[in-house]
Structures are given as structure tokens and as C-alpha cells.
Write the C-alpha cells for this entry.
Amino acid sequence: MIEGSMKARLFATAAILWTYGCGPAAAESVLPVAPNDPRAITVRGQGDGRADDTDAIQRALDAARDKTGHGIVFLPSGRYRLTRTVVVPAGVRIFGVGPTRPVLVLGANTPGFQSGVSTMVVFAGGDQYNVGKVPVPVPTVVPRDKIVRDANSGTFYSSMSNVDVEIGPGNPAAAAVRFRMAQHAFLSHMDFRLGSAFAGVYQAGNVMENVHFHGGRYGIVTEKTSPAWQFTLIDSSFDGQRDAAIREHEVDLTLVNVAIRDTPVGIEIDRGYGDSLWGKDVRFENVSRAGVIISNEKNVFTQIGFENALASNSPVFARFRDSGRTVEGKGRAYKVASFSYGLAVPELGRTGDYATEADIQPLPAMPAPRPPAIRDLPPVAEWTDVRSLGVVGDGQADDTAAIQRAIDGHRVLYFPTGFYKVTDSLKLRPDTVLIGLHPAITQFYIPDNNPRHAGLGTVLPIIESPRGGDNILSGLGLFTGRVNPRASALLWRSGENSLVEDVKIMGGGGTPTADDKPLGTQSAHSGDPVADGRWDAQYPSIWVTDGGGGTFADVWSPNTFAQAGFYVTDTSTPGHVYEMSVEHHARNEIVLDNVRNWEFLAPQTEQEVGDGPNAISLEIRNSRNLLFANYHGYRVTRSYHPARSAVKLFNSGDIRFRNVHVNAESGYATCDDEGCGTFLRASKYPFENAIEDLSHKLVVREREFAKLDVGPADRSIVAALSGMAKVDKLEEGFWSISGAAVDADGALYFIDRRFQRIYRWTEAKGLEIVRDQPLDPVNLAVDGSGHLLVLSSLGAKATVYSLDPAGPKDQLTLIKPTPVRAASGARTLLPVNWWNNGEFRDQLDHKTYEFTTLAEMFARDAGTPKAQEYVSPDGSIALPAFRVWQQGPTDHVGWRWSDSLNANGFVSGKQGDRLFVTNGSENVTYSGTVGPGGTLTDLKPFANRGGESVAVAGDGRVFVANGQVFVYGADGKELGRIDVPDRPLQLIFGGRDRRTLFILTHHALYAVTP
């Protein structure tokens, strides 16, 4: 009793100290003086750790956004007690200013932070799709009834820097920050003193740099980011977490120079999930159970890699959750020179298999920590405000000469928010440093049709750095205008120690302009969209050349007017790229030509539906000694245009690819007349191949893999063994075909959706056009009377109609949805391929603290009965009325998505029949039982390949389309592979004897009798 009483008094004393601001001393500030910015809003709170400053901080945040939707908030030194969640509006950046870092304090036992997960600071997003309501409110807000829209894939620039967080005792549900950002956002220079809290960050995104987590159950807990892009953590540390430093899944975690100490687990990947995890220079010290816990072992989305990891007193480097297998360290101190687990592709032109690589070497002692990956900016005392030197920045005055004089006379220049008009190149000195605080509203821009940038001539960049320079660019936006053919944003020749960080190449989404006009105002109305928009009509946005190199971190380059977003030529100076987003170009996103000694960690590209149907994600020419890790090659789900390869190689070799993710699926949250929710969809138009070597005429069909080493460019490559059966090309010249069905006589019907044609193929007559009316057919089925049931995307949601392929061309029967019938005896149509993932909605159960797995989500979705169905006129088949979501306008222009519209085709069965389907979000093929209401129940994993389609032969063999056609016995044992010249999209058995396997690819129809 005496001991218990003493503990109670000590706990109470500690609670009082935390509540009234006597916690640990604040860290040293990186902004000891507030930079001069007339547009910034300064928080006017008490800052004594006792008064409730929640309202004062929220008022400043709400007032900060300017007419462009962006702003800056300064938080002076002090201790700011929060009692409720503060919400950071999209586009707002918070900077701590003053001699010590300001501290956000959660006092002991603050109401609302005791159960579930409750966040002190929530970074919010805008109404990305103009849906009005908040479809998925943030569930971690205090109080719970406050409706907050989460940050989403359209949330840019929001940041917090130079602010610490302390969480007092008695707040076990507390998390300091929710930061589920898209692009060009960061947390930096922060200490999280967590005590007994749940986590420092719950839901992460984009970049965190120089952040340090002390205590807590976890340092970071996170799942997939809102746009499903990477999350990169740099120059950071964890110590004293009770369960794990980081708990995560599918966040595509990239670690650079991160230390993890005094915790049972370094990185734990959640049950039932994989991740693309890449760590460079990660230290594990006193990590008792495992440096990393790997889940979902036999899955392509599990891609784990480390380079130069160090460990001491950490006996197990990797532990596999499912099998219990471990990879042990060697001695008390050891170095993991390289580690890779996942699908390994042995060579170009080959398929992959699962492999573990672990190069572990004992060490006599731990080496000293490496220098930071991101160098510090010069002290604020060295900054010179350009406004004091005659630079105006009002968007009207020509600041070129004034800025050049400032560069010539001062080493470190600070640019307050403003638009700085530039009409000629600015030439940096070898030691020039240019600093801003918000790239969206601190821009250098070239006016349209600027005389110096007109006509044919050599490149004239906004900023040009000298060869070998020691330069820094930070926090600036660069806009080359709409029509300036000779323009480039940045011509970079600086050396290995140089830095380009937090720089946005303006153009595309999130672009405020000096003239307040939309980007497309220079339309020529020629009928050519490239000419109209002046796309692909400028030099590359960022051009590194002539021995240039250095570090490029948190850079976003989406300017469609430029020929490429990031262009590197003629250099062997090392380059380090961390979390770079390059998007929306008409031809190339990233190009390397005659380049050596570069690494790209977490590069992401995206091709939009309008500007990027022909764009290449990454093109490498005449280059070697390169590393690409956690690479994302994404095409938007709205794409309609097939594309061959994400990466193209020309005369290049000695390239290491680690953790490659080539995809075209996404999700969004919206509301309609049926309610609100999230919808996940997969496109039919990702890149067909991950990598294509034009010099060797070989491709890599695997779109998800952990490892590929491309050898020397001049090597000879032994031809891969051919598949188990030869395929025949029946027809070609299509845009993209799918949606196939077979009638009772074995005739094949299929759709070329772009041209709205329904074809038939028979051995007797070959190819015939059955219909070509503009009725937007997507998927087909054949009923018992031989008529086609057609699912169309035409209409407010979707439409189903029936037609007689032998009947008059102008006749069809519209089918209205009707209530689902019970035990009708009809065959139920179900998608052959599904996509099911938990984006936007938190999947963490706030009672059990377990995440819903992908398999559980799929079972829940597939097992949910549909209220209505579309029944063929003869009653023999029924298509469940899957809910259809609409993105964009509500008229005919909007895109429509559903499990049935997204599918490459249908499979069918009566209630009680067992069918095979694939789930692309897991890359798993399942069998399931057809149930009432269009359900698929009793799902059982069948194969760990689950790509575009699956078909079952009469003898029970199962054929899966996943880059090639993989053949399995009825017992799930892999029997072999059928190689197809193009990527197979849909498989279906037909022909007179039902033994012909038809293989539909984008542009050709093949057949084989396996």
C-alpha cells in the first residue's frame, strides 16, 4: 500500500508538471528570428503552457490562406497547450520562430485522448472532386463530432517545421500529427516527446526530415498515403518505443539515414499486408526482437530492401511473420551491406520468383553516424531579404536586374512570398543560396511570349548554376510561362554537395499564377491539343548537365509545357534524388543520357488522361551505375490509351532496380444519391511492361518486383526457355479489346471499347463486326437463347441491354434493374478481376488496434448482397447491379466506375457453383462460391499470382493472366507457362470443342490449345 501510494503521488506530480509547462527543455530553433514576410500570420497566444491556446492557433491557421488558397503561419517560441484538435487548412505552412522551438503541449489526462486514436494536429484537404459533403470524415478529431475533410491526393504544400510536440501522461490514445499528404509537403526539424501516447504521427505522407521520436507505443503508425505514393523519412531517429518504432503497410516507406534504438521492433509491416520498403544507411541499436518484421511473404507487393544497414545488440535483422523464418545478424555488431526479399527477376525477358538476399558482415564496432543526407540551410543571420535590395516581387515589375545584382553582391538571399518577374537568365555565383518558405506563392516566373525566350535558339533557363558550384535552392517555385520555346526552369551544373530542396516547377495541379489566369489561356484552336496547349514546346524543366550533380529532395515537376520534367545529361558527378514527383508531360517524365553514379530513391511519375497517353515514365540512354529504389510508374485510372513500357533502356547497363511498382489503380471518396463512401478502381491501361530494353529487344512483364540487376550494356543475354505451348495470332490492329464472352457453339464475342465495336470471331468466318453503334459497350455475356447481354457505361450510372447478334442492327432491348430473385436458377455474372483496397478510410480498428486486411476487405465486398440485378430477357443469366460511382461532371463527360465496369470480363455460375476470380490489389487468385444476391463467398486463396484474368479448362486446370499465362493444376500446383507476344488481358475458353483458349491483348487476339 505504501509503494502504491508513493507511485500515485509521483504520477500526480508528473501530471501537474506536464500540465503547467515544466516538461523537458525545448530544442534549439533553426529559425531564431522570424523571416520578414508581410503576408505571414503570427499566432497571438499565451504560450505559457498553462492557458488553452487551441483557439488562438486555429484562428491564425484559418486566417492564413490568401486568394490562391495558400499561406504561412509563424508560431513564436513558447509552450502552447492544446485541448482539442487543431486543423491545418490545405496549402498552409507552419513555421516555429524564435530562440527556442515552440512546443505544442497536450496536458496530462486531456479529455478525448484516452481511447481509440486522437490527433492533436490534423492536416486537412480540400473538396477535390466537388462532392460537397465530406464523404469520409477524419475519425481521429477531438471532439469526435467535428467534421474534417482529410488531406487527399489533391492536397499540396502543407507543412510544419521547427515545432516540437510533448504529450503528457494519461493520454494513451494520443497521436501528435495526422499528415496524409499528397505532394510537396513535409514535417521537419521536430522532436516528438510522446511518453505513454499511441504515436507521434498517425497517417503519414510525402517527406519528413530531421524528426525525432522519443517514447510512445509507436513513433509512426501509417498505411497507404492518400494518393498511394511514397513516404520518405530522412535524417531522423526513434528511441524508446514500447512496441515498434514504425508500424506500417503499403506506405512505400523509404528511409535515408535513420536511427532506431531501444525498442523491440524497428519496422513492423502489418498482418496480411506487404510494403515497398527501402532503407539506406539505417542503424538498429538495441532492437531486441527484429529490425524488420515482414508479412505476406509470397506476395508481389512485399518488396523489402536495405543497403548499408548497421546493427548492434540486435540479434535478428529480419523476421518473417507468416513462416516464422528469421535472418540472423552476425555478432554483437554487424553490417548488412545489402538485403532484398521479394519477387526477384533474374534477367530481362524473364519472369520472377521469390528470393532472399542477405549480405551480412560482422563488425568489430559500430562506425560513427554518417553526415546528414540533407545539408542545413545557412543560419538566418546570414540571410539577406531581397526586398531590402530593391527587388519588388509584385508580379508586375521586371525584377531581373535587381535579383541579379543581389546575387552578385550577397551569398544568401531570402525571398518573401511574392511573384518575381524574370525576363532573362539569373546566373548564380558558385556559393549562391536562394531561399523561400512556400513555393506556391514564392515564384520566379517568365511572362508569356517573352522576347528573349521566343523563336528557335539554345536554352535560356530562369536560373543557371555554375559548374561545380556549392549552391542551394530551397522553398521556391519556378514557372516558365505558357508560350516561351527557349525556356527552362533550372539549368544545374553545381557539384555533389549542392542541394535543390522543396522546389516546385509550376504547371499542372496546384499552380497559382501571377496573372490569375488558368494555364490553358494560350489556345490556338488548331484542333491539335499539343499545339493548342503548347505542350511539349519548351526545354526540360530541370536540366542537370555538364558535370552537374548533388541532392534533389522533395521536388515536384509537373509542367506539361516542357519536354521533360527532370533531364540529366553528360555527368558522372554523383546525384541523389529523394522523393521526386515528375508528372504530366507529353513525351518523357525523367530522362538520363550519358549519366553515371546516380541514385533515385522514391521517384514517382504520373501520366494524366489528356496530356500523357504517349508519355514514357523513365528513359535511360547510354548510362550506367544507377540505382532506382521504390520507383512508381503510375498512369491515372481514367486512362483510355494503351502504353507499352514504363521504363525504356537504350545502350545502358549496370542498373539496379529495387522495389518496382508500375500501376494504374486508385480510389477516391465521394457522395452520391445513395450516400457517401470510398471507391477503389483499377484501370485497364497501366503500362503493359515495367521495363523495355530497346537495345536487346527484351521486356520485363512483371510490374511488381523487388529486384532486377541489369548487367553491362554490351553483355550477351541467353534466350529464355519458351513456354509450354505455342500461341497463334488470329487477328490484330485493335485499340484495346476485352469484355469477351463465348456462345453455345463456341463463337467468341468481344469489344474494342475505344471504337465501341462488338466483334465476333469463329474459325469458319474469322472476324466479323456485330455492332458498331455509339453505345459504349464494356462487357458481354451470352444468355441461353444466344443473345448478348451488354453492360454499357452510357447513362447516368450504367446501362444494360440485350441484342440478337443475328437480328436487325437497329434493334436492342433495354433491361431495367429489378429486385434480386431468390434461387431463380439463373447463372450469376461476376467480374473476373477485382480491385479492393482501403484507401481514404482508416482501416485501423480503434478498439483492437488491428488493421483490416486486404483479404478481409475483398471478402466483405464480394460477400455483400446486391439489392437489384439485370436479368436477360430469357431469364437465364443475371448481372448483379453493382454500385456505380461517378467522378467528375454528372453528365455524359464524367467517368463511371464499378466492379463490373472495371472488369476485363465476366465469369458465371449458378448458386453453389465454385468460380475462380483474381483480386488485383493482392495479386492473388481466389476460388469462391456463388451465393444469393450476386455474392461470392467462402473465398479461398488459390495462387499467389492474380493479374488481369483467369479461366478454367474442362479438365480443371486453371489459367491465370499475369504478364504471361500461368497454368495451375486443380490442386494449385504450378504446371507451366504459356508465353504470349503481348501482355494477356483476358482469357476465355471457346471454340467448337471448348478447348481453345482465346487470349485477348490490347491490340491482338491470340489462341492456343493447351
Observations:
- The chain has four domains: 1-203, 228-373, 395-710, 728-1008.
- Helices lie at 2-19, 54-64, 400-409, 529-533, 854-862, 899-902.
